[in-house]
Amino acid sequence: MDTMERLIRSTQELLWERGYVGTSPKAIQRRAEAGQGSMYHHFDGKPGLALAAVRRSAGELRAEAEARFSAPGTAIERITAYLLREREVLRGCPIGRLAQDPDIVASEELRRPLEETFAWLRGRLAGVLAEGRARGELSDGLVPEEVAATIVAVLQGGYVVARAAGSAEPFDQAVGGLLALLRAHVTLS
Amino acid sequence: MDTMERLIRSTQELLWERGYVGTSPKAIQRRAEAGQGSMYHHFDGKPGLALAAVRRSAGELRAEAEARFSAPGTAIERITAYLLREREVLRGCPIGRLAQDPDIVASEELRRPLEETFAWLRGRLAGVLAEGRARGELSDGLVPEEVAATIVAVLQGGYVVARAAGSAEPFDQAVGGLLALLRAHVTLS
DNA sequence: GTCTATAGAGAGATAGAC
DNA sequence: GTCTATCTCTCTATAGAC
Fold first, then answer.
1. Among all strands, which nt has the closest C1' to A42 (CA)?
2. What is the residue extent of each domain of chain A?
3. How would residue B188 be classed by pLDDT, with cut points 50, 70 and 90?
4. Is the pLDDT of residue A188 over 80?
5. A159-180 in b/e burial notation, b at 16+ Cβ within 10 A?
Protein backbone atom coordinates (compact mmCIF):
# COMPACT_ATOMS: atom_id res chain seq x y z
CA MET A 1 0.00 0.00 0.00
CA ASP A 2 1.55 3.31 -1.03
CA THR A 3 1.72 6.47 1.02
CA MET A 4 -1.22 8.21 -0.60
CA GLU A 5 -3.43 5.20 0.01
CA ARG A 6 -2.33 5.00 3.65
CA LEU A 7 -3.09 8.69 4.11
CA ILE A 8 -6.61 8.30 2.75
CA ARG A 9 -7.38 5.23 4.85
CA SER A 10 -5.99 6.79 8.01
CA THR A 11 -8.10 9.86 7.39
CA GLN A 12 -11.20 7.70 6.88
CA GLU A 13 -10.57 6.01 10.23
CA LEU A 14 -9.93 9.24 12.10
CA LEU A 15 -12.94 11.02 10.62
CA TRP A 16 -15.07 8.08 11.72
CA GLU A 17 -13.61 8.02 15.23
CA ARG A 18 -13.17 11.73 15.94
CA GLY A 19 -14.92 13.73 13.22
CA TYR A 20 -13.38 16.49 11.12
CA VAL A 21 -12.96 19.03 13.91
CA GLY A 22 -11.36 16.40 16.15
CA THR A 23 -8.87 15.19 13.56
CA SER A 24 -5.50 16.93 13.11
CA PRO A 25 -3.07 16.61 10.20
CA LYS A 26 -0.46 15.42 12.67
CA ALA A 27 -2.69 12.59 13.86
CA ILE A 28 -3.27 11.52 10.27
CA GLN A 29 0.46 11.49 9.58
CA ARG A 30 1.13 9.46 12.68
CA ARG A 31 -1.44 6.83 11.80
CA ALA A 32 -0.38 6.66 8.16
CA GLU A 33 3.30 6.57 9.14
CA ALA A 34 3.88 9.41 6.72
CA GLY A 35 5.87 12.60 7.22
CA GLN A 36 4.65 16.17 7.12
CA GLY A 37 6.19 16.84 3.71
CA SER A 38 4.74 13.63 2.37
CA MET A 39 1.22 14.57 3.30
CA TYR A 40 1.41 18.08 1.90
CA HIS A 41 2.96 16.74 -1.29
CA HIS A 42 -0.04 14.50 -2.03
CA PHE A 43 -2.78 16.76 -0.70
CA ASP A 44 -3.28 20.49 -0.40
CA GLY A 45 -4.20 20.24 3.28
CA LYS A 46 -6.78 18.94 5.70
CA PRO A 47 -9.86 19.79 3.61
CA GLY A 48 -8.52 18.10 0.47
CA LEU A 49 -7.54 14.99 2.34
CA ALA A 50 -10.90 14.89 4.08
CA LEU A 51 -12.71 15.19 0.76
CA ALA A 52 -10.84 12.19 -0.64
CA ALA A 53 -11.55 10.18 2.52
CA VAL A 54 -15.25 11.10 2.64
CA ARG A 55 -15.74 10.17 -1.02
CA ARG A 56 -14.05 6.85 -0.41
CA SER A 57 -16.21 6.07 2.64
CA ALA A 58 -19.36 7.08 0.77
CA GLY A 59 -18.51 4.69 -2.07
CA GLU A 60 -17.90 1.86 0.37
CA LEU A 61 -21.18 2.46 2.19
CA ARG A 62 -23.03 2.48 -1.10
CA ALA A 63 -21.46 -0.76 -2.33
CA GLU A 64 -22.23 -2.47 0.97
CA ALA A 65 -25.90 -1.43 0.81
CA GLU A 66 -26.32 -2.20 -2.88
CA ALA A 67 -25.24 -5.80 -2.25
CA ARG A 68 -28.32 -6.27 -0.04
CA PHE A 69 -30.74 -4.37 -2.25
CA SER A 70 -29.87 -6.29 -5.42
CA ALA A 71 -29.90 -9.72 -3.75
CA PRO A 72 -32.72 -12.14 -4.58
CA GLY A 73 -35.89 -12.17 -2.45
CA THR A 74 -39.01 -10.13 -1.85
CA ALA A 75 -38.80 -6.42 -1.08
CA ILE A 76 -39.37 -6.96 2.62
CA GLU A 77 -36.80 -9.76 2.75
CA ARG A 78 -34.12 -7.56 1.20
CA ILE A 79 -34.92 -4.63 3.45
CA THR A 80 -34.91 -6.89 6.50
CA ALA A 81 -31.54 -8.28 5.47
CA TYR A 82 -30.21 -4.74 5.10
CA LEU A 83 -31.55 -3.69 8.50
CA LEU A 84 -30.26 -6.77 10.29
CA ARG A 85 -26.86 -6.96 8.63
CA GLU A 86 -23.95 -7.04 11.01
CA ARG A 87 -22.92 -3.56 12.14
CA GLU A 88 -20.43 -2.16 14.60
CA VAL A 89 -23.21 -0.15 16.19
CA LEU A 90 -21.14 1.74 18.76
CA ARG A 91 -18.80 3.07 16.10
CA GLY A 92 -21.74 4.74 14.42
CA CYS A 93 -22.11 5.49 10.72
CA PRO A 94 -18.96 6.83 9.03
CA ILE A 95 -21.07 9.17 6.89
CA GLY A 96 -23.93 10.11 9.22
CA ARG A 97 -21.41 10.94 11.90
CA LEU A 98 -20.00 13.76 9.81
CA ALA A 99 -23.39 15.44 9.47
CA GLN A 100 -22.93 16.65 13.05
CA ASP A 101 -19.60 18.27 12.30
CA PRO A 102 -19.88 22.04 11.98
CA ASP A 103 -16.96 22.39 9.56
CA ILE A 104 -18.28 19.65 7.27
CA VAL A 105 -21.73 21.18 7.08
CA ALA A 106 -20.26 24.65 6.58
CA SER A 107 -18.40 23.48 3.49
CA GLU A 108 -20.56 22.94 0.42
CA GLU A 109 -17.91 20.65 -1.04
CA LEU A 110 -17.52 18.44 2.04
CA ARG A 111 -21.24 18.23 2.74
CA ARG A 112 -22.22 17.24 -0.80
CA PRO A 113 -21.01 13.59 -0.60
CA LEU A 114 -23.14 13.16 2.53
CA GLU A 115 -26.19 14.60 0.85
CA GLU A 116 -25.69 12.43 -2.23
CA THR A 117 -25.14 9.28 -0.19
CA PHE A 118 -28.39 9.62 1.74
CA ALA A 119 -30.30 10.75 -1.35
CA TRP A 120 -29.10 7.61 -3.14
CA LEU A 121 -29.94 5.42 -0.14
CA ARG A 122 -33.46 6.79 0.21
CA GLY A 123 -34.02 6.52 -3.53
CA ARG A 124 -32.79 2.94 -3.67
CA LEU A 125 -34.96 1.90 -0.71
CA ALA A 126 -37.97 3.66 -2.21
CA GLY A 127 -37.36 1.73 -5.42
CA VAL A 128 -37.29 -1.59 -3.60
CA LEU A 129 -40.49 -0.68 -1.74
CA ALA A 130 -42.24 0.45 -4.93
CA GLU A 131 -41.22 -2.81 -6.58
CA GLY A 132 -42.68 -4.79 -3.68
CA ARG A 133 -45.90 -2.85 -3.89
CA ALA A 134 -46.18 -3.38 -7.64
CA ARG A 135 -45.74 -7.11 -7.08
CA GLY A 136 -48.48 -7.13 -4.49
CA GLU A 137 -46.09 -7.95 -1.65
CA LEU A 138 -46.85 -4.74 0.23
CA SER A 139 -50.04 -2.88 0.99
CA ASP A 140 -50.89 0.11 -1.23
CA GLY A 141 -51.32 2.47 1.70
CA LEU A 142 -47.64 3.35 2.05
CA VAL A 143 -45.72 6.08 0.22
CA PRO A 144 -42.38 4.47 -0.70
CA GLU A 145 -40.38 7.72 -0.43
CA GLU A 146 -41.68 8.39 3.06
CA VAL A 147 -41.09 4.90 4.38
CA ALA A 148 -37.62 4.91 2.82
CA ALA A 149 -36.81 8.11 4.72
CA THR A 150 -38.11 6.50 7.90
CA ILE A 151 -35.89 3.44 7.44
CA VAL A 152 -32.77 5.54 6.94
CA ALA A 153 -33.65 7.68 9.94
CA VAL A 154 -34.16 4.65 12.20
CA LEU A 155 -30.66 3.42 11.39
CA GLN A 156 -29.00 6.81 11.83
CA GLY A 157 -30.95 7.55 15.00
CA GLY A 158 -30.31 4.05 16.28
CA TYR A 159 -26.58 4.73 16.13
CA VAL A 160 -27.03 8.00 18.02
CA VAL A 161 -29.06 6.54 20.87
CA ALA A 162 -26.82 3.48 21.11
CA ARG A 163 -23.72 5.64 21.47
CA ALA A 164 -25.46 7.72 24.11
CA ALA A 165 -26.33 4.53 26.00
CA GLY A 166 -22.92 2.94 25.51
CA SER A 167 -24.80 -0.14 24.31
CA ALA A 168 -26.20 -1.55 21.06
CA GLU A 169 -29.49 -2.40 22.71
CA PRO A 170 -31.42 0.77 21.76
CA PHE A 171 -30.36 0.28 18.14
CA ASP A 172 -31.68 -3.27 18.10
CA GLN A 173 -34.93 -2.24 19.73
CA ALA A 174 -35.48 0.57 17.25
CA VAL A 175 -34.89 -1.79 14.32
CA GLY A 176 -37.16 -4.39 15.94
CA GLY A 177 -39.94 -1.83 16.31
CA LEU A 178 -39.57 -0.73 12.72
CA LEU A 179 -39.77 -4.31 11.44
CA ALA A 180 -42.90 -4.90 13.53
CA LEU A 181 -44.51 -1.78 12.07
CA LEU A 182 -43.57 -2.81 8.53
CA ARG A 183 -44.83 -6.36 8.94
CA ALA A 184 -48.41 -5.12 9.31
CA HIS A 185 -48.19 -3.96 5.71
CA VAL A 186 -46.87 -7.19 4.25
CA THR A 187 -49.35 -9.12 2.20
CA LEU A 188 -49.01 -12.61 3.60
CA SER A 189 -48.41 -15.30 1.02
CA MET B 1 -28.30 37.45 34.41
CA ASP B 2 -25.09 36.83 36.34
CA THR B 3 -21.76 35.66 35.02
CA MET B 4 -22.15 32.04 36.01
CA GLU B 5 -25.50 31.86 34.28
CA ARG B 6 -24.11 33.47 31.12
CA LEU B 7 -21.24 30.98 31.12
CA ILE B 8 -23.60 28.02 31.30
CA ARG B 9 -25.91 29.30 28.58
CA SER B 10 -23.04 30.18 26.27
CA THR B 11 -21.63 26.71 26.76
CA GLN B 12 -25.02 25.16 25.97
CA GLU B 13 -25.17 27.11 22.71
CA LEU B 14 -21.63 26.28 21.68
CA LEU B 15 -21.96 22.59 22.50
CA TRP B 16 -25.08 22.52 20.36
CA GLU B 17 -23.42 24.35 17.46
CA ARG B 18 -19.90 22.92 17.53
CA GLY B 19 -19.83 19.96 19.93
CA TYR B 20 -17.44 19.44 22.82
CA VAL B 21 -14.29 18.94 20.74
CA GLY B 22 -15.10 22.01 18.66
CA THR B 23 -15.73 24.30 21.62
CA SER B 24 -12.86 26.14 23.33
CA PRO B 25 -12.86 27.88 26.69
CA LYS B 26 -11.90 31.08 24.91
CA ALA B 27 -14.96 30.88 22.66
CA ILE B 28 -17.16 30.37 25.70
CA GLN B 29 -15.65 33.39 27.44
CA ARG B 30 -16.13 35.53 24.34
CA ARG B 31 -19.79 34.60 24.01
CA ALA B 32 -20.48 34.97 27.72
CA GLU B 33 -18.57 38.26 27.83
CA ALA B 34 -16.63 36.88 30.77
CA GLY B 35 -12.92 36.97 31.37
CA GLN B 36 -10.50 34.08 31.71
CA GLY B 37 -10.21 34.45 35.47
CA SER B 38 -13.95 34.68 35.80
CA MET B 39 -14.55 31.38 34.07
CA TYR B 40 -11.93 29.48 36.04
CA HIS B 41 -13.24 30.97 39.24
CA HIS B 42 -16.73 29.51 38.75
CA PHE B 43 -15.74 26.23 37.08
CA ASP B 44 -12.76 23.93 37.27
CA GLY B 45 -12.33 23.90 33.50
CA LYS B 46 -13.91 22.81 30.26
CA PRO B 47 -15.24 19.43 31.48
CA GLY B 48 -16.94 20.90 34.53
CA LEU B 49 -18.55 23.67 32.55
CA ALA B 50 -19.69 21.20 29.91
CA LEU B 51 -21.24 18.97 32.55
CA ALA B 52 -23.29 21.87 33.93
CA ALA B 53 -24.38 22.84 30.41
CA VAL B 54 -25.30 19.30 29.38
CA ARG B 55 -27.37 18.76 32.51
CA ARG B 56 -29.19 22.00 31.87
CA SER B 57 -29.94 21.10 28.25
CA ALA B 58 -31.10 17.64 29.25
CA GLY B 59 -33.52 19.12 31.77
CA GLU B 60 -34.92 21.52 29.19
CA LEU B 61 -35.41 18.76 26.61
CA ARG B 62 -37.22 16.66 29.16
CA ALA B 63 -39.55 19.47 30.24
CA GLU B 64 -40.37 20.24 26.63
CA ALA B 65 -41.24 16.62 25.87
CA GLU B 66 -43.17 16.06 29.09
CA ALA B 67 -45.49 18.96 28.20
CA ARG B 68 -46.66 16.97 25.15
CA PHE B 69 -46.85 13.60 26.86
CA SER B 70 -48.97 14.81 29.75
CA ALA B 71 -51.35 16.86 27.60
CA PRO B 72 -54.92 15.62 27.14
CA GLY B 73 -55.78 13.31 24.23
CA THR B 74 -55.36 9.74 23.07
CA ALA B 75 -51.94 8.11 23.04
CA ILE B 76 -51.58 8.53 19.29
CA GLU B 77 -52.67 12.16 19.46
CA ARG B 78 -50.07 13.00 22.06
CA ILE B 79 -47.33 11.17 20.20
CA THR B 80 -48.30 12.87 16.96
CA ALA B 81 -48.20 16.24 18.68
CA TYR B 82 -44.74 15.45 20.00
CA LEU B 83 -43.49 14.35 16.59
CA LEU B 84 -44.95 17.35 14.77
CA ARG B 85 -44.04 20.00 17.30
CA GLU B 86 -42.03 22.87 15.90
CA ARG B 87 -38.31 22.12 15.73
CA GLU B 88 -35.27 23.88 14.37
CA VAL B 89 -34.41 20.78 12.40
CA LEU B 90 -31.12 21.94 10.89
CA ARG B 91 -29.69 22.76 14.31
CA GLY B 92 -30.16 19.14 15.31
CA CYS B 93 -30.78 17.82 18.82
CA PRO B 94 -28.71 19.48 21.56
CA ILE B 95 -28.35 16.14 23.33
CA GLY B 96 -28.21 13.65 20.47
CA ARG B 97 -25.56 15.77 18.82
CA LEU B 98 -23.17 15.13 21.68
CA ALA B 99 -23.43 11.36 21.28
CA GLN B 100 -21.16 11.69 18.24
CA ASP B 101 -18.49 13.51 20.20
CA PRO B 102 -15.53 11.28 21.05
CA ASP B 103 -14.62 13.14 24.24
CA ILE B 104 -18.19 13.07 25.53
CA VAL B 105 -18.56 9.34 24.98
CA ALA B 106 -15.11 8.70 26.45
CA SER B 107 -16.15 10.35 29.73
CA GLU B 108 -18.48 8.32 31.88
CA GLU B 109 -19.60 11.47 33.64
CA LEU B 110 -20.37 13.47 30.51
CA ARG B 111 -22.07 10.58 28.72
CA ARG B 112 -24.39 9.68 31.59
CA PRO B 113 -26.82 12.62 31.14
CA LEU B 114 -27.24 11.59 27.50
CA GLU B 115 -27.95 8.00 28.44
CA GLU B 116 -30.43 9.05 31.12
CA THR B 117 -32.23 11.49 28.85
CA PHE B 118 -32.86 8.92 26.13
CA ALA B 119 -33.73 6.23 28.66
CA TRP B 120 -36.32 8.55 30.18
CA LEU B 121 -37.66 9.51 26.75
CA ARG B 122 -38.03 5.91 25.62
CA GLY B 123 -39.62 4.93 28.91
CA ARG B 124 -42.08 7.80 28.81
CA LEU B 125 -43.08 7.06 25.21
CA ALA B 126 -43.44 3.35 26.03
CA GLY B 127 -45.71 4.34 28.92
CA VAL B 128 -47.93 6.44 26.66
CA LEU B 129 -48.11 3.61 24.13
CA ALA B 130 -48.92 1.01 26.79
CA GLU B 131 -51.65 3.28 28.12
CA GLY B 132 -53.13 3.59 24.62
CA ARG B 133 -53.05 -0.15 24.20
CA ALA B 134 -54.74 -0.72 27.54
CA ARG B 135 -57.50 1.68 26.54
CA GLY B 136 -58.03 -0.15 23.27
CA GLU B 137 -56.76 2.74 21.17
CA LEU B 138 -53.87 0.75 19.73
CA SER B 139 -53.58 -2.77 18.40
CA ASP B 140 -52.13 -5.42 20.72
CA GLY B 141 -49.48 -6.51 18.24
CA LEU B 142 -46.95 -3.85 19.15
CA VAL B 143 -44.31 -3.99 21.87
CA PRO B 144 -44.38 -0.50 23.46
CA GLU B 145 -40.65 -0.49 24.33
CA GLU B 146 -39.67 -1.34 20.77
CA VAL B 147 -41.93 1.20 19.13
CA ALA B 148 -40.78 3.83 21.61
CA ALA B 149 -37.18 3.15 20.60
CA THR B 150 -38.19 3.45 16.95
CA ILE B 151 -39.85 6.82 17.52
CA VAL B 152 -36.80 8.26 19.27
CA ALA B 153 -34.52 6.90 16.53
CA VAL B 154 -36.63 8.43 13.75
CA LEU B 155 -36.29 11.86 15.34
CA GLN B 156 -32.56 11.56 15.97
CA GLY B 157 -31.90 10.08 12.55
CA GLY B 158 -34.17 12.65 10.93
CA TYR B 159 -31.92 15.38 12.28
CA VAL B 160 -28.83 13.63 10.93
CA VAL B 161 -30.15 13.17 7.40
CA ALA B 162 -31.62 16.68 7.32
CA ARG B 163 -28.26 18.21 8.26
CA ALA B 164 -26.54 16.10 5.61
CA ALA B 165 -29.06 17.36 3.05
CA GLY B 166 -28.96 20.94 4.24
CA SER B 167 -32.76 20.80 4.31
CA ALA B 168 -35.52 19.81 6.73
CA GLU B 169 -37.29 17.77 4.04
CA PRO B 170 -35.81 14.35 4.91
CA PHE B 171 -36.79 14.89 8.55
CA ASP B 172 -40.39 15.64 7.60
CA GLN B 173 -40.54 12.65 5.28
CA ALA B 174 -39.17 10.31 7.94
CA VAL B 175 -41.75 11.52 10.46
CA GLY B 176 -44.48 11.25 7.83
CA GLY B 177 -43.54 7.67 7.09
CA LEU B 178 -43.50 6.80 10.79
CA LEU B 179 -46.95 8.28 11.32
CA ALA B 180 -48.28 6.33 8.33
CA LEU B 181 -46.85 3.11 9.76
CA LEU B 182 -48.31 3.85 13.19
CA ARG B 183 -51.75 4.72 11.84
CA ALA B 184 -52.26 1.15 10.66
CA HIS B 185 -52.25 0.13 14.32
CA VAL B 186 -54.75 2.67 15.53
CA THR B 187 -58.13 1.26 16.44
CA LEU B 188 -60.51 3.63 14.63
CA SER B 189 -63.24 5.07 16.79
C1' DG C 1 -15.02 37.88 41.74
C1' DT C 2 -12.38 39.69 37.93
C1' DC C 3 -8.06 40.99 35.50
C1' DT C 4 -3.54 40.35 33.24
C1' DA C 5 0.64 37.64 32.53
C1' DT C 6 2.73 33.52 31.37
C1' DA C 7 3.40 28.91 29.52
C1' DG C 8 3.86 24.30 27.36
C1' DA C 9 1.55 21.84 23.84
C1' DG C 10 -0.69 21.20 19.52
C1' DA C 11 -2.97 22.92 15.02
C1' DG C 12 -2.17 23.80 10.33
C1' DA C 13 0.58 25.11 7.30
C1' DT C 14 5.07 26.99 4.25
C1' DA C 15 10.02 26.69 2.66
C1' DG C 16 13.87 24.69 1.17
C1' DA C 17 17.25 20.87 1.34
C1' DC C 18 18.01 16.14 -0.24
C1' DG D 1 8.63 12.05 -3.03
C1' DT D 2 10.26 12.68 1.62
C1' DC D 3 12.60 15.20 5.46
C1' DT D 4 13.57 18.90 8.74
C1' DA D 5 13.11 23.66 10.15
C1' DT D 6 10.29 27.39 11.07
C1' DC D 7 6.13 30.15 11.92
C1' DT D 8 1.80 32.07 13.57
C1' DC D 9 -2.37 30.89 16.16
C1' DT D 10 -4.99 28.65 19.29
C1' DC D 11 -5.87 25.39 23.26
C1' DT D 12 -6.28 24.86 28.09
C1' DA D 13 -4.88 26.02 31.79
C1' DT D 14 -2.06 28.23 36.29
C1' DA D 15 -0.43 32.24 39.12
C1' DG D 16 -0.76 36.24 41.31
C1' DA D 17 -2.28 41.12 41.51
C1' DC D 18 -6.35 44.03 42.42
1. D1
2. 57-183
3. low
4. no
5. bbbbbbbeebebbbbbbbbbbb
Q: For chain B, what is the HEC assignment?
A: CCHHHHHHHHHHHHHHHHCCCCCCHHHHHHHHCCCHHHHHHHCCCHHHHHHHHHHHHHHHHHHHHHHHHCCCCCHHHHHHHHHHCCCCHHHCCCCHHHHHCHHHHHCHHHHHHHHHHHHHHHHHHHHHHHHHHHCCCECCCCCHHHHHHHHHHHHHHHHHHHHHHCCCHHHHHHHHHHHHHHHCCECCC
Identify any residues that bridge with B138 across adjacent strands, giving them in sequence order: B186
Average pLDDT taken over every residue of chain A = 97
Q: Is A123 on the interface with B (CB under 8 A)?
A: no
Q: Is A153 on the interface with B (CB under 8 A)?
A: yes
| B contacts of A148 (beta carbons < 8 Å) | 177
pLDDT of B189 > 60? The answer is no
- In the predicted model, what is the mean pLDDT of residues A29-48? 98
Residues 6+ apart with CB under 8 A from B30: none
Nearest to B18 by CA among A149, A22, A58: A22
For residue range B29-51, what is the model confidence (pLDDT) as tens digits? 999 999 999 999 999 999 999 99
| Architecture of the domain defined by A57-183 | Orthogonal Bundle (1.10)
- DSSP three-state, residue A43: coil
* Nearest nucleotide from residue A46 CA, by C1' atom: C12
